[in-house]
Amino acid sequence: METVFSKIIAGDIPAKILKETEHSLAFLDAFPLTKGHTLVIPKNPREKIQDLTDEENKDLFSLVHIMASKIDSISGATLIAIHNGKEAGQEIPHVHVHIIPRSSSDGAGPIHSMFNSSKLSELEIEEIYNKLKD
Are the C-beta atoms of residues 22 and 56 closer than 8 Å to each other? Predict the structure, then answer.
């Protein structure tokens, strides 16, 4: 499926490319939430991070690490976010990591402010724990 990201990778849509590696691309977000909002994407279209090959995963997160350091040196703090699938809020079905410069005055708040918190019982927590542990 062709997306805006595949068009950026192909050079069909212009983008402010910041850094490119063998498997990944970092560029300024066209609709930034803050100054310096950057996206890091794999060049191969993968919908979820678990769809990445080991090599693509290492390359992608190595570039996230590099770009987060650069952005953090300008802003002092960053939010790194991935919407991993449509149900998680992913609008484009292609892995993309948001690196968003943050400040205490930006009004965005901590991650827990994004959700209506639900209290889980000890039994529910134990069931989830048992499903996720090795």
Answer: no
Residues 6+ apart with CB under 8 A from 72: 78, 101
**Alpha carbon distance 105, 12 (integer Å):** 37
Boundaries of every domain in the chain: 4-132
The per-residue pLDDT for range 56-103, each reduced to its tens digit, is 999 999 999 999 999 999 899 999 999 999 999 999 999 999 999 998
d(CA 74, CA 76): 6
Q: Which tens digit of pLDDT belongs to each residue from 11-51?
A: 999 999 999 999 999 999 999 999 999 999 999 999 999 99
Look at the chain and count its residues. 134
Catalytic positions, written as ranges: 96
Burial bucket for residue 117 (CB in 10 Å: 0-12, 13-18, 19+): exposed
Under CATH, which architecture does the 4-132 domain have?
2-Layer Sandwich (3.30)
Distance (Å, whole) CA 134 – CA 117: 27
What is the number of other CB atoms lying within 10 angstroms of the CB of residue 127?
Answer: 12
